[in-house]
Amino acid sequence: MPDTKATPQAAKDFLEFVNASPTPFHAVESVKKRLDNAGFRELLEVESWPSQVHLGGKYYCTRNGSSIVAFAVGKKWRPGNSLAMVGAHTDSPCLRVKPVSKKQNDGFIQVGVETYGGGLWHTWFDRDLSIAGRAMVRSRDGTVRAPLVKIDRPILRIPTLAIHLDAQDPFSFNKETQLFPIAGLVAAELNRTGQTSKAESTEAQKAESRREPLKSMTQRHHPYLLDLIAQDLRAETDDIVDFEMVLYDTQQSCIGGLNNELIFSARLDNLMMSFCGLLGLVRSVESASSLDDEPGIRLLSLFDHEEIGSLTAQGADSNLLPSVVSRLTAFQPHLFGQEDLSRADLETNTGYEQSLATSVLLSADMAHAVHPNYPTKYESDHRPEINQGVVIKINANARYATNSPGIVLLQEMARRAGPAADAQDKSQSGVPLQLFVVRNDSRCGSTIGPMLSAALGVRTVDIGNPQLSMHSIRETGGVYDVDHAIQLLDSFYRNFSEVKRKIIV
User: Fold this and answer.
1) Which of 86, 282, 446, 453 could be stapled to 399 by a disulfide with Cβ–Cβ 3.0 to 4.6 Å?
2) What is the pLDDT of residues 453-495, one digit of tens each?
């Protein structure tokens, strides 16, 4: 690995974050640890919040262990005031282990997988893969808990066919029959366990005699795979009653490029913007007095399932963010004093609608950097470059939610941001921005921005750091863009309550 002494600290912190987060479950756990260290307190959705949320407080809640909403309440907050919100997502395209994954063919043990999202699946061939996720484990008292699993060594590989046997150009394959990874050799497994097909038949007979609703886990999955999961959890294999596992590349994310200016990593889309949103929020409230004069709420929402449409209980198209905002904008006499609330306020309770009417959401999802080998794929005047700043994404057909007031707002936030790590003059504040639209003859992706904008009726700006190879198992971004985004989002949280009054629409 190249010498990284000149690498900005924010980029090195991001590498630690992404390497620890092979799944949305791990990403949320990583976020929670940083929030806990920053003085945030966890709230549970099943509980009532009014007695727990206080002016000047910092909180977070999770759903499904794969989505999280964090917020800091200004000491001058009142229902009807604005929220400065950032939204991103925790998931990335991957291969997920099937409910029945046990396969073997021509002497090889294989694991059945299904595709999640729109990955560049050819990039998953010939990589050193392992598994991570969460397991459902039965405790001695009969309760079932969901600890996280991360096997830290290569155990799987999807081998390509030798060019001598099928010289395809371009390379193509069947995702159902030719994307299954190998996990080892049948003979080696038999030697390890001393099992025979007769022993496996006995196990099946035992399961049948117990009349279980489903086949046993050892019938559905390779026993050694279950043993590895149990070892990682320090649990008994028989206590694993189910799991949600995905494959991930064991190669660590790293700094690259001749001048240590690039990041080579899995899951840049969208753990980079999740990380930048997290640090932007944490930095904005790190001072003991940061919320003293704050009339609004600073909020970060990180959702699962963006890559498959977001229409799930923990996706951006769920009630997660609306329900959190609704709880926070309800009139609560114990917070403000009965004398501050009129009878009309208490009876009509339109704080939710009033707050959203003046709030702004930054939908933070990675953007496309110009590719030097495919320059004609980009609109000639909108060609974002790596390490040249956060990209504002615009689309006339509303695939992105950005409009002109949002662009004006973001420019002011960029002007007020602290100096970038790559700035020649550290006394000069501000970070750069870029603009992006797709060509008229090219399709346009989308983000959580339009759906949240429609659901909440809130002004939304789509932004993201530029990257190459989006949805590949190994993507490329810029070390300085990590700092650019953190500084921009920190500025957004700190300055929104003041700046938004100056933009009249």
Assistant:
1) 446
2) 999 999 999 999 999 999 999 999 999 999 999 999 999 999 9
3-state secondary structure 92-153: CCEEEEEEEEEEEECCEEEEEEEEECCCCHHHHECCCEEEEEEEEEECCCCCEECCEEECCC
Could you read off the pLDDT of 146-173 as tens digits, one per residue? 999 999 999 999 999 999 998 778 889 9
Name the nearest CA neighbour of 394 among 357, 363, 345, 435. Answer: 435
Three-state DSSP at 412 gives helix
My answer on whether omega of the bond before 213 falls inside 30° of 0, hence cis, is no
Contact 386, 434 (CB under 8 A): no
What is the DSSP annotation of 161-227? Answer: PPTTT---SS----TTTS-PPEEEEHHHHHHHH---HHHHHHHHHHHHHHT-SS--HHHHS-HHHHH
Name the strand (E) or helix (H) holding 460: strand 459-464
Find the farthest-apart pair of alpha carbons in the chain and give their distance in angstroms, rounded. 83
Instruction: Say how far apart CA 22 and CA 124 lie, in whole Å.
Output: 15
Cα–Cα nearest to 458, from 342, 356, 344? 356
Distance CA 88, CA 449 (A): 9
Q: What pLDDT shows up at residue 348?
A: 60
How far CA 498 is from CA of 93, 308, 423, 502, in Å, comes to 39, 37, 26, 8
Confidence of residue 198 (pLDDT cuts 50, 70, 90): very low
Exposed/middle/buried for residue 56 (C-beta within 10 Å: 0-12, 13-18, 19+): middle
**Is residue 48 within 8 Å of 274, Cβ to Cβ?**
no
Distance of CA 69 to the CA centre of its chain: 12
- Distant-in-sequence, close-in-space partners of 83: CB < 8 Å, separation ≥ 6: 71, 296, 297, 298, 299, 325, 328, 355, 356, 359
- Please list, residue by residue across 94-127, b when 16 or more beta carbons sit within 10 angstroms of its beta carbon and e when fewer do: bbbbbeebbbbeeebbbbbbeebbebebbbbbeb
Question: Is the preceding peptide bond at 270 cis, omega within 30 degrees of 0?
Answer: yes
What is the pLDDT, as a whole number, of residue 273? 98
Q: What is the separation, in whole angstroms, between the first and last Cα of the chain?
A: 51
DSSP, res 82: -
CA distance 436 to 371: 14
CB–CB of 54/73 below 8 Å? yes
Length of the chain: 505
Name residue 94's amino acid.
C
Amino acid of residue 160: T
SS3 for 162-178, per residue? CCCCCCCCCCCCCCCCC
Q: Cα separation of 455 and 449, whole Å?
A: 10
**Per-residue model confidence as pLDDT tens digits over 235-275:** 999 999 999 999 999 999 999 999 999 999 999 999 999 99
